[in-house]
Amino acid sequence: MEVMTRANLVYFENFTNPVAERMLRAADHIALQRLRFADDRAALDAAMAAAHGYHALPRVEIVEPWFCDAALLKRAPALLAACSTGAGFDVIDVDACTAAGVIVCHQSGTNKEAVAEHALGMMLALSKKFAQADKALRRGAAPDRFALTGRDIRGKILGIVGLGQIGTRLAELCNGLFGMTVLACDPYLTAEQIAARGARKVALDELLKRSDFVSVHTPRNAETMNMFGAAQFARMKPTAWFIQTARGGIHDEAALADALAAGRIAGAGLDVFLKEPPPADHPLLAFENVIVSPHNAGITEEALHDMAAGAAEQWIAIFRGQVPPRLVNPEAWPRYAARFREAFGFAPNEFPQ
């Protein structure tokens, strides 16, 4: 392969904030190319075939055939790295990338404040019955205030499933603001690590049985798909609420609807669905004790800026040969390093042991 002096980085439509384009165009070792889904397919295929980096849009915005899967990798023989827009990277087939010597990165932590605050907002809205009160007033009848009696969250038990950056920030907020007891289920962290993040390590079964709120903050992958089904909802308290701001598919939507209809849980706050946006007749939208948002928990002005800036910084580091800070598949590094050297004429940094 001919030695390249600049890395070709492609992306569709827009970054989450113009700061990314400004930073990347100022980097003299990167040739940035904006693609549009409406562009000529031959031109798009040519750009992808020459790309060393691909910045993938989230699942809500990306369209076929531009998911970073095995089929795309065959059309992109020069690709060295693929990055997701946010913390989730389910639009990228990590196993296929690893097999091809392509590293995968995400932007975890760049929108942690936005998502943690959104989850906390859903907890407050559900416990105070904001949705039911709002709808009652809009219907025009004089509501029975005592029928809308809510509950305080101070001193309650919060169960966090997945104690990454978002879960850790939520634990910090709930510990500090409301004196809540925080339980956490995360098989990849020790009890000591979880304690340092403000929670107590428990198994999922104990978390479900004890928590007044169950908030999900895991990636969507083979391990977590349908992680919450009928059995899990049956273990929750009938007075507990389920909060999901991670990814659609982690909970079984039909099982959740059944649990709500049977009164097995008190309600739910959902920012994510298996199909987004959900159809207007989706069963979960019929419940007054369910509040929903259109997968915008991580979309605030501050988060969009930080996601874009973090992505640009990471791309700049990648093509300078540095180990990126949010690498998903370190096992790809040896083959990636060989391919990087072939493309650019110098080896990237060694992966730290």
From TrEMBL:
Database matches in Pfam families: 2-Hacid_dh (PF00389), 2-Hacid_dh_C (PF02826)
Domain D-isomer specific 2-hydroxyacid dehydrogenase NAD-binding: 120-297
CDD domains assigned: PGDH_4 (cd12173)
Key words, A-Z: Amino-acid biosynthesis, NAD, Oxidoreductase
Record-annotated D-isomer specific 2-hydroxyacid dehydrogenase catalytic domain positions: 68-329
UniProt xrefs under InterPro entries: D-2-hydroxyacid_DH, D-isomer_2_OHA_DH_cat_dom, D-isomer_DH_CS, D-isomer_DH_CS1, D-isomer_DH_NAD-bd, NAD(P)-bd_dom_sf
The keyword Oxidoreductase is assigned to this record: yes
Gene Ontology terms, MF aspect: NAD binding; oxidoreductase activity, acting on the CH-OH group of donors, NAD or NADP as acceptor
GO BP: amino acid biosynthetic process
Family: Belongs to the D-isomer specific 2-hydroxyacid dehydrogenase family.
PANTHER family: D-ISOMER SPECIFIC 2-HYDROXYACID DEHYDROGENASE FAMILY PROTEIN (AFU_ORTHOLOGUE AFUA_6G10090) (PTHR42789)
Name of protein: 3-phosphoglycerate dehydrogenase
Species of the source: Falsiroseomonas bella
Lineage of source species: Bacteria, Pseudomonadati, Pseudomonadota, Alphaproteobacteria, Acetobacterales
